[in-house]
Amino acid sequence: MAFHLFARVSLVLTCLSLLPSSTYASPASGSTSSTSSTSATSTTFSATAVISTTSAAPTTSNGKNAKRGLSYPDTDNLADVLNINQTKGLVSWQYDWGLTPPPNLAQSGIQYIPMQWGSGGIENLSQALQAQNATILLTFNEPDFNQQSNIDPNTAAQLWMQHIEPLRTTIPGIRIGAPAVSSDTTGVPWLTSFFGACTNCTVDFLPIHWYGEGVEGFYSYLFQLYSQFGNRTIWVTEYADTSLADSDVMTFMNQTTAYMDTLDFVERYAWFGYFVGIRSSLLASPLTFTHRGLKMVLPIVRSLCLVFQFLHS
Ligand SMILES: *[C@@H]1O[C@H](CO)[C@@H](O)[C@H](O)[C@H]1NC(C)=O
Ligand SMILES: *[C@@H]1O[C@H](CO)[C@@H](O)[C@H](O)[C@H]1NC(C)=O
Ligand SMILES: *[C@@H]1O[C@H](CO)[C@@H](O)[C@H](O)[C@H]1NC(C)=O
Ligand SMILES: *[C@@H]1O[C@H](CO)[C@@H](O)[C@H](O)[C@H]1NC(C)=O
Ligand SMILES: *[C@@H]1O[C@H](CO)[C@@H](O)[C@H](O)[C@H]1NC(C)=O
Ligand SMILES: *[C@@H]1O[C@H](CO)[C@@H](O)[C@H](O)[C@H]1NC(C)=O
């Protein structure tokens, strides 16, 4: 997430007030736009026809959407996890920028994807993954950003060869994502340097982050990073529309989830974010807090109406 989004804190108190913490209601009618917008799939992108194939969203064996995940199920409350996981819930995976799940997430039955956030503790990465039978790993979070993991590309490449590449021997079949750069101007140059320095690194998929307004900017970025970094499968591990108008955000969410469900090269996506536990901080600005020892910055607080929409439709 990016600091320039600090000011964009949307306080959607009317909707929040309708929703007690452990009982989600349907989105309030006042929070949705009555305008029906252009279908995402009808928007034209020059790259689309060339490089993408589409099909229906994959479904897990228990009927969830195999692509749809949550970033930071911020809760020590098992009831919140049960809400995510209720019969009609579509979310099939979760991550919290940490390497090992707290007990409530570990017990949730929702797949937890570990992340090696920065260089800290990387010596013990293999043990940590083996202890939880992990088969997928996310790596460095926004290393191009000095307020996040802040690792230069050459150091990241060295760390990768020393601690990450050997996982292919200790955990056969593991799938490993590239470092997830920010969508700021520093991101793409950082990744270019990283891939240049890490020619012997095996990178299975490319996690990306994006913040902005409107589907077109998001889709352009998605296709750009897909083609620029070797047509690797994409995981959108953080994204959100930063508009202050809830109706714009709802439209963006509706269109992007539907569209990404059809794009074969988008393997997973996670809306930013699920922050039930810090709703009491809504009036703090900017919203910074420490989560599991990591400094977090919350650019936008969205109403639970929107979260509900993401979880269920
Ligand atoms: C979540 O759902 C899955 C699949 O229905 C189930 O196996 C698991 O026990 C559920 N988790 C909780 C905490 O109820
Ligand atoms: C790695 O694990 C060992 C013991 O399992 C511990 O002593 C050590 O402090 C850990 N190192 C890091 C960097 O966490
Ligand atoms: C990992 O797999 C082993 C062998 O199947 C199993 O005994 C163990 O409980 C699993 N550990 C976790 C944390 O799932
Ligand atoms: C990549 O591996 C090859 C073969 O082991 C080696 O010769 C080369 O120096 C390595 N390149 C880098 C950048 O480490
Ligand atoms: C990516 O896909 C395009 C279009 O199919 C192809 O021309 C290009 O060679 C691919 N790039 C890589 C690195 O595979
Ligand atoms: C988003 O989709 C839901 C149903 O899936 C619908 O109720 C809502 O009106 C849609 N919102 C917008 C802005 O299109």
Automatic annotation (TrEMBL):
Residues 69-275 form the Asl1-like glycosyl hydrolase catalytic domain. The keyword Translocase does not apply. GO terms for cellular component: fungal-type cell wall. GO terms for molecular function: hydrolase activity. The keyword Disulfide bond does not apply. It comes from the Eukaryota. Residues 1-25 form the signal peptide. Keywords: Hydrolase, Signal. Pfam families: Glyco_hydro_cc (PF11790). InterPro entries: ASL1 (IPR053183), Asl1_glyco_hydro_catalytic (IPR024655), GH (IPR017853). One of its GO terms (biological process) is fungal-type cell wall polysaccharide metabolic process. PANTHER family: ALKALI-SENSITIVE LINKAGE PROTEIN 1 (PTHR34154:SF3). This is Glycosyl hydrolase catalytic core-domain-containing protein.
